[in-house]
Amino acid sequence: MRYMPWHIERLNELVALWNKELHVSFPMRTELFKQNSFLDKNISYEGSRIVVNDHDEVIGFVIVKFFKEKTVVKMRDDIGWIQAILVDSAYRNQGIGSELLKHAEAIIKQRGLNLIYLGRDMYHYLPGIPKENQHTRAWFEKRGYQHDQSNVDMTRSYDPNEEIFWPSKPDAEFSILQESEKEGFLGFLHRCFPGRWEHEAVHYFQKGGTGREFVVLKEKDEIVGFCRINDAASPIIMGNINWAPLFDGKLGGVGPLGVDAEKRKKGYGLAVVQAGIAFLRERGIDQIVIDWTGLIDFYSKLGYDVWKSYEGYQKEI
Q: Among 104, 202, 228, 252, fewest CB within 10 Å belongs to which?
């Protein structure tokens, strides 16, 4: 067997291996894998590796990331991410996974980073290890990874004939972001939610986004809150629609959301989510996912149930 550099020429084989092992719970699409694991500028081509057998067939891989982009948005630059590590079940217990992880950690350490997250990367697949994968969790724990958080994906299906609920707040209005409001919106994010959400919004507009993926909450024409919504027409496949093949109909995604700290305690958070749901349903979407959240009670108020559960892990190096 051979350990090879990360290369897009193996894209279809990598997707095939993923689906051989994980298609039941996490069916991979070629366009999603290409977006998240090749087009992301933060991929570490030194740390990522492909393993092939004696017949030149892909039997394993690891994907490593760390923040490399030049951006005006202040982002943490001390973290390395292992986006995914996978070995063909027919070749396990031969030390392949351990070798891939050892190589990934060495490159991350060489980069001068001091913390590794499993998942949670920019353009991520998962926010942690699926809770039911106890063997995988134990495997990483044995190698020094420590549990640091728990998160879930939640979902709800709507009857197409069910009336669409539009929230109403006396001093607020909800609308889809217009292209002319781009700079004001980015200014709001920079002021209230600097970091990842701001960075993702900048990416969105760079990828041709027009504003239809953002619901904004305004008071007196000033943006004081937002909710991101995604569907099949969105320019970026975001985490809440990663696993759309598991649903028969159109899938929409809600989140993240945020409200200016000075405008909270007014019920705006729940209301802007309700507005996001309403806009998605107006587009003919009756199945919605909210991903990577710990706010189970919050979303349960809207009839959402836990769909998938994850355990987050990190390692200091």
A: 202
Domain range list for the chain: 2-125, 155-309
Looking at 3.40.630.30, 3.40.50.300, 1.10.10.10, 3.30.70.260, the CATH number of the domain 2-125 comes to 3.40.630.30
Task: Look up tokens 């590796």; give the residue.
Answer: 49
What is the Rg, in whole angstroms, of the alpha carbon atoms belonging to the chain?
20
Dist CA 159 CA 290 (whole Å): 18
Q: Is the separation of the CB atoms in 11 and 61 below 8 Å?
A: no
Cis peptide before 256 (omega within 30 of 0): yes
Regions of the chain where pLDDT drops below 50: none
Say whether 155-309 and 2-125 share the same fold. Answer: yes
Give me the amino acid identity at 243: W
pTM score, two decimals? 0.96
Token pair, residue 166, equals 């539009």
For residue 70 the two structure tokens come to 């030049």
Q: Are strands 58-66 and 251-259 parallel, antiparallel or unpaired?
A: unpaired
Q: Look up tokens 């550099």; give the residue.
A: 5
Helix (H, G, I), strand (E, B) or coil at 267: coil
**Distant-in-sequence, close-in-space partners of 135: CB < 8 Å, separation ≥ 6:** none
Which pairing describes strands 287-293 and 305-316: parallel, antiparallel, or unpaired? unpaired
CB 237 within 8 A of CB 32: yes
* Strand partners of residue 258: 226
In terms of Cβ atoms closer than 10 Å to its own Cβ (0-12, 13-18, 19+), residue 74 is exposed
What is residue 71's predicted lDDT score, i.e. its pLDDT? 86
Predicted confidence (pLDDT) per residue in 205-242, tens digit: 999 999 999 999 999 999 999 999 999 999 999 999 99
**Can you identify the CATH homologous superfamily of domain 155-309?**
Gcn5-related N-acetyltransferase (GNAT) (3.40.630.30)
**Whole-angstrom distance, CA of residue 191 vs CA of residue 176:** 20
